[in-house]
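Kindly draft a polypeptide, keeping tokens residue-aligned:

***
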Amino acid sequence: LGLVLIKLLFIFSVRPGFVGMILRAGKIQRNDLDPGWYFILPILQSGERVYIGLQRIPLEEEARTKDQAIVTVRGTGQYRVLREKAAVAEFEVQDPDNVIKDRLLSALRSAIGKRTAAECFENKEEISADIIGEVKAGLERLGFEIVQVPIIEVAPHKDVVKAINDVQAAQRATDVERARAEAIQVRTAAEARAQAHAAEIRGEGQAKALAAQAAGYLDMIRAVTGDLTAKVDVRTASTLIMFFESMGMKRSFAQSGKASAVVLPDDQAVISEIAQLVPALVSHEAIDSQQDDTEEAVDHLTQAEMEELLRERLSEPLKEVGSEYLDALKTGAVDAAKSAMERMPQRLRWLAQKIADRI
């Protein structure tokens, strides 16, 4: 018990991270005691400890920039008590945390006001250096050293953030609408191409049917005229079909019994009408000059001449198919060439194959 009383009354200890001071009658006798044990006289002397380790103060402030934008700055003030001025910091400064914080925030507002918002976002380290430079000397006189003032974040004001978010949301909505419109445009174009291709196929089918129908009538014309070499083009075929269909309508009309004037069918009269039309309908020229291009007729042509011949024989909507076919042959794209050939009229595929054999 005696040892405990001696320690409590006569021994003064200084822990690591502190500096010790001995006071006598309220006056400082020593202010530089390192960590350890020291003897003091009770009643006459007393001991004080001052923490000299690193201390932190959270900082958060709204400040106006040079370009009148309001930003929120978050950071930390890091300081410690100077060992040689521990007595000043301890006895002459009341509420040191608030004193230091006020000076740091004042310097922070000054540093932000010298810069635009963009510069504040990009130069946090420069802002920190400006703050330290402004408060360093004044706080050292009070016994404090500013170690660092790291700026963690410089953020736009919440109203600005909301406006930015609204603009971005509107932009995203616009992008979605644009993408949807482009998709519709692509789909519409694809449907149009498909319809055009289908119409082309239907047209080719109708042309083949027309040619077959005309061939039957042509046999009749050849029988009437005795000209076994007569040929007919598409326009003439159409005229023939319309003529014979009108003859059929006459016959049906006469047989219906509903006409006030009855026209009786007369096969010999029909034949006479056809014979009268023959000079205007029959031609010794080819239906299409392409049909005269037999394999023997083009064997003497060069590859370039064959390609030009193919382009000439293709109708305007199919010229692009011909170019696609020739390009595919020259680049070795076999599948693409095959696909293009299949879209050509049957009557020109042998010529396309001739060109492929040459390449």
Q: What stands out?
A: The two ends are 117 Å apart (CA to CA).
